[in-house]
Amino acid sequence: MYCNIKAASTSNIEYSSLYNNLPIRQLIVFLKDQVFTLLKLIILERKVVIYSHRPSIVSGLIIALCSLLPGFLAFSGKQLSSKKIEWHLKTNEMYGLPLHIYNNKVHFLPLFSLSEINTLKELNGYTIGTTNSALIQLLEVKPDVYLNIDEAKFTILNKGLRAALKLTDYEKEFIKNLMMDIHYEPNEEHKIDNWQCIKPPTEEDNLRFAGCNHYIRQQFTDYFRELIVNLSLAEFVCRTLQPKELKENTLKEIYDDLNIVEENLTPSEYKEPPECKIEVKEEIKMEHKKLEKPKTFNTKAEFITYQLLKNYNIQFIKEWEFTINYRIWELSHFPRLFCFSEYSSNLYNQT
Predict the structure, then answer these.
(1) Does one domain contain both 184 and 68?
(2) 233 and 207 share a domain?
(3) pLDDT given at position 249
(4) Is 50 in a helix, a strand, or coil?
(5) Strand order in the sheet with 153-156
(6) 336, 257 in Cβ contact below 8 A?
(7) What pTM was estimated for this model as a whole?
């Protein structure tokens, strides 16, 4: 397969074509809010088992799920000799993406063979698909979550993770809006409780951008980029406030570097894609109305951190900080990534 890809003319391959024919739309309709739960478990390097008696369904769902993590399934741009793919990979690198989740201690196995069950004992985490319903009983250490696609049953077995996996109102609204964009209407004789009951997209659906696979992936890309940019800003604030207030010129110096960043990241033969355009909004005010009670903050840094990260579940962020992929992300993203946050100008105006 690799030889065939390498021999083919790949200079004009679009980035989106790497994700063709994945059941992404079907995945969102089937799992809804639980898509976020599974993605967070994967990011936390936890043990995830997904079952279906049909191998094409279980492996397809897992690959579609992971495709929502920006850059996760992309080939090397050099191997494909496509400058369009190189551009997307280079942009993702600025954000520290893709996240380096899988390694020798955390495995990705879309179709798992029962004969390899002993190898799971040595792993800290995994994402595996199986067609053998007996796997869950044979495991000495139970997984953190088990999804039975055929019966549409989603079970969190590790109760200690429930706080970190709780979805925020922002994330629930995100999925609600995505479902509206998909324009999905179930068959009259079926409820949306089975993967096979979900109707494939019609010709009209395929012609509509909103709700298509590329659109769905772009929404998740924007979500994860926003998360890590605000996380980067929160870390910067905690380092800089110390614990009184920001230095007057610190953020101003960051803005002065924006033009240099744009020149270095944009290949001369391509215009910057609209979704990657760097903007600094001048008048962005953080919300102060929907604070959960009781909530106390000892320092200004704690309050700002809460405001920046509350949309993503701060408990999840705390759990994420203990993973290997988080530590790699800290070392690999653009050092001044936080200046791309829409809130950074608001912080600068306050100082």
Answers:
(1) yes
(2) no
(3) 44
(4) strand
(5) 106-109, 125-130, 47-51, 145-148, 153-156
(6) yes
(7) 0.78
